Amino acid sequence: MESTNRRLLWDASGFDDDLDDRQRNMESTNRRLLWDASGFDDDLDDRQRNMESTNRRLLWDNGSGFDDDLDDRHLPAWINGRQRKLLGSTNTGDIKADVVVAKDGSGKYKTINEALMDIPKNNNKTFVIYIKEGVYQEHVMLDKHMTHVTMIGDGPTKTKITGNKNFVDGTPTFKTATVSAIGSNFLAKNIGFENSAGAEKHQAVALRVQSDMSIFYNCQMDGYQDTLYAHTHRQFYRDCTISGTIDFIFGNAAAVFQNCKMIVRKPMDNQQCIVTAQGRIDRREPTALVLQGCTFTAEPAYLPLKDKNKAFLGRPWKQYSRTIIMQSHIEGFIQPEGWLPWMGDFALNTLFYTEIDNDGPGAATTNRVKWRGIKKVNLEHAKKFTAGTFIGGDKWIKPVGVPYVSGLM
Length: 409
Fold this sequence. Notes:
Helix content: 10-25%
Largest sheet: 11 strands, parallel
Number of helices: 9
Number of strands: 26
Shape: globular
């Protein structure tokens, strides 16, 4: 592929260029807070690791040790028995929502954006929005004041929020998102998020997540290039399906995906497919994309093209890109090299990519690229990237009641 084409097709952006100064300053502040707390440095000695381990315990520990059978009195203020029951129920009749959205007029509102007006600012209790079956063509932003919001639909293919903003038509990538979740403690269950712009429109985000301690359970994110923007903070995805073509899971969050399905779609004729593009910019940042117990598969329309339009596990968007794929199933359409350069030798010595205990015809690592940043990690080392350790999930995921594995599977 010619270098010009590479720049046109693979530039999943200079996303920083899309941000205004306030956004950049906010992100810089967030990164400093995370660094100071402090993440995982891939090359730290034991003394540094011990010190950082202590710091991480301080960061994640809010003074509670959670148990599955705790009553409301022992749960954090932002979690209650009502939320646990909602998440554990398979019967929509059990949903006692603060507001109901329904296209057919059977709820309080017909649009999601109308329902957002009912959310108390800086709310510290669960606010439930039940979105009934239907296709909602709107762009939704839950701003930083919309905290502790739970959105529940009738199923990821029944309740769908869809938009088509895209880079080619003049919208900066950051602003193409159909749904943007910014306020902390956002939770979504049984909802589909879609950007329908199509492969020819290049960058087109279905879901952008900046919400700290956010959870997505049994959701679906569909798009092509840049489907899921896991932007910042701690995020957990369980039993979700994410589809796309180029860099369709990207960003610089500390994000763990458990039991999720990553589906490669048919790209444009001159495009290759890349599942992940993690964007860590400093080795001290405690961020990474961790895919555990997941499945890498492809839609039938892609498979005849797999030798021409090749597919890879990921590539480094930023200098210290970090991605961990463990205990997952990788199908045979993934190229034997596994990983793709961004441009030339950029980040190949500073990235951190590792594959641990995976299976499937595409999981063999014998012919993987031999970059300095490709690491061989044993299961003991891998424990630091599990949800309980890496994002402190025992403190904020386990109490909510979604399916969750704290350690290795």
